Amino acid sequence: MTPARCFPMVLLLSVLSGCGAGDDYSDLDAYLSEIRLRGPGSIEPTPVFRSYPTFTYEAGNLRSPFSPQVSTDLATHRQGSRNVKPDPDRVRQYLEGFNIEQFEMVGTLSNATGSFALLRGAGGVHRLKVGDYLGRNDGRIVAISGSQVDVVEIVPDGQGAWLERPRTIPLKEHS
User: Where is the signal peptide (predicted)?
Assistant: First the structure.
């Protein structure tokens, strides 16, 4: 055998022979005997935890504090009119398929033909003029200013008649 082959073999044998030499477990034996002397009752009992009163959240069915307050006073409840009703023969515009709440005003444009509102919603920015419709409740734009768009919706009053409900879409700053 060549010395280059013998060296790894000698190194392996010396490492393996060192594992069995010196069976000195005196520190381990001392620790185990100390544990045995304590006896079985030397384990501390588990701590007693104080119980806290349970809390049940019961405001889930209440109005959100971030939505505007709705008056339910029946004395001020407006009655609908039989003269006001949506036109069933009118051709629907594209933006009438979306909720009016998702639209936000982002600006205005003016030129020789008139003033237009820029509304973001329904997947893009749309240019609308007075008389255009949007929202699912036959919402018609009645006025456009630099700070808001005024819309009048026609909604059922719950008693078989229709009611005109004004809405405003304010200009969203920094958009």
Answer: 1-21
* Beta carbons of 148 and 170 less than 8 angstroms apart: yes
**Tokens at 71, concatenated:** 């008056």
- Domain membership flag for residue 139: yes
Residue 57 lies in a domain: no
Quote the radius of gyration of the chain (alpha carbons, Å).
41
The two tokens of residue 106 are 């982002």
Per the confidence metrics, is the pTM higher than 0.70? no
The encoded tokens of residue 64 equal 């959100």
Residue 38 corresponds to which tokens in the numbers above? Answer: 């304590």
* The pLDDT value given to residue 75: 46
Q: Domain span at residue 109?
A: 94-170
pLDDT > 90 fraction of the chain, expressed in percent and rounded: 30
CATH number of the domain that residue 107 is part of: 2.30.30.830
How many independent structural domains does the chain possess? 1
Which spans in the chain are helix H? 3-20, 26-38
- The whole-number pLDDT of residue 169 equals 92
Q: Which residue has the higher pLDDT, 173 or 82?
A: 173
**DSSP assignment letter at 21:** S
Task: Tell me, yes or no, whether 103 lies in a domain.
Answer: yes
